[in-house]
Design goal:
binds zinc ion, seven-stranded mixed sheet, alpha/beta
């Protein structure tokens, strides 16, 4: 399995992009950097996009992807929970902000929404996909994706602490998990449903206690303005857990 990180940060600039990951060139998770991060040929290879939640930094490229697939004369499948689909239909693909590509063109619309439910596994393009509820400010799922040869990645999406229920249901080789802000923002992290380095340490310790191992860990959704200081706090976490933790970055390819 190859995981291509298109966007690894929570704010955007020339050098930092919103959340987007592509598995083996065919399965995308979140759309914060899908059109800006992939060529037209790469976009046309996509079989499906899985959305984790409705926040702008995770769905931003959906209207652009709709326009591209309209002009490619192809259909892209977008998997979401019902609340995310409702928000996209009401606010983005509403024929006001941009065309409703779920109806255009009428005979073969550019976007086909598919509904997923937390806890219900589905097979998409040969991959087993398990959406699981995580703890964020709006309804959010993380995804465990299992390739046909049995490799597993879990992408948490944005989440706060207390992920023990998730850990019980997954067994990833690779965990892509968020760390958004520094330890000094502990209260705000709790309130907004995000992790700090110390909260990450507690979640990884909980994973180890429940599963008896730690997977490879790659971080995402960092605030780039504080990334250097976050790195210093994460090195203390590495020492405490005696494990290596990598920072995701735009363009990174991870093989498992
Ligand atoms: Zn969010
Ligand atoms: Zn986010």
């Amino acid at each position: 399995m190859n995981i291509h990180i298109l966007g690894a940060h929570n704010i955007e600039s020339k050098n930092s992009r919103y959340a987007s990951f592509v598995i083996d060139g065919v399965l995308a998770v979140d759309a914060g950097a899908l059109t800006s991060g992939l060529s037209f040929a790469e976009q046309q290879r996509l079989k499906a996009v899985l959305l984790t939640h409705q926040h702008y930094d995770h769905i931003r490229d959906i209207p652009a992807l709709g326009m591209n697939f309209y002009l490619f004369e192809k259909t892209i499948e977008i998997y979401t929970t019902p609340p995310v689909r409702e928000v996209l239909s009401a606010h983005l693909l509403n024929d006001v902000l941009y065309p409703d590509f779920t109806k255009k063109p009428p005979d073969k619309p550019a976007i086909l929404f598919k509904t997923i439910e937390a806890g219900q596994p589905v097979t998409i393009a040969g991959y087993e996909v398990l959406p699981l509820t995580v703890n964020h400010a709006v309804p959010t799922v993380g995804y465990q994706i299992t390739s046909p040869d049995g490799k597993k990645v879990f992408i948490t999406s944005d989440t706060g602490p207390n992920l023990a229920d998730c850990w019980q249901q997954i067994s990833p080789d690779l965990l892509i998990i968020e760390v958004t802000m520094l330890d000094k923002w502990h209260s705000f992290a709790h309130q907004s449903g995000h992790l700090t380095p110390t909260l990450l340490r507690q979640e990884l310790a909980s994973f180890h206690k429940i599963k008896g191992y730690l997977p490879q860990v790659v971080l995402k959704h960092m605030n780039p303005l504080d990334e250097k200081a976050i790195k210093a706090e994460i090195s203390a976490v590495e020492k405490a857990l005696n494990t290596k933790i990598r920072f995701g970055r735009e363009g990174m390819q991870i093989k498992i």
